[in-house]
Amino acid sequence: MSFQVDFYPRTWKKGTGLGGDAAGVSSMDLKEKAKLLVRTVNGLSGRVVVVEGKRDALALQKCGIFFGAVAAVGKPERVVEKAGATGRVSLLFDFDDEGERKTRVFSELFRCAGAEVDTLSRKRFRQVLGITFFEEMPAKLREFEEKMKMQKICEKVI
Fold first, then answer.
1. Residues 146, 147, 152, 154: is their CA dihedral positive or negative?
2. pLDDT (0 to 100) of residue 85
3. pTM of this structure
4. Residues of the domain holding 103
């Protein structure tokens, strides 16, 4: 399953996959950020998504980005086993010290188990939405949507 938005992130529709350059996102206009956000969400399709806890999984679900996220609670080796050690995995951990530590630990464990590990998606969510914690994602997405609405209104006026 793949999603696309017509510059309105709540309306995910079928579209393209992961792509684009996360560098320089702050200088992008809103439409470019929306496109990058859509590509990032699309890139999660078909992947096991691993988050720090249940609140992070719930936050993704509230945003309409729910792919059966696995909460990284308990022994890391057990989480890797539970998530399915092989295949494609996206790690969406927070940007605090614990989240950075878990990103390093789980990246190594999943790679050793033969998985393709994606950590770029978490960076893109941070760069486009300005999140530090994935629990913030629903509120940050609403802020982004409001900016998009305002831009559309301004474009109509101009």
1. positive
2. 62
3. 0.78
4. 25-157
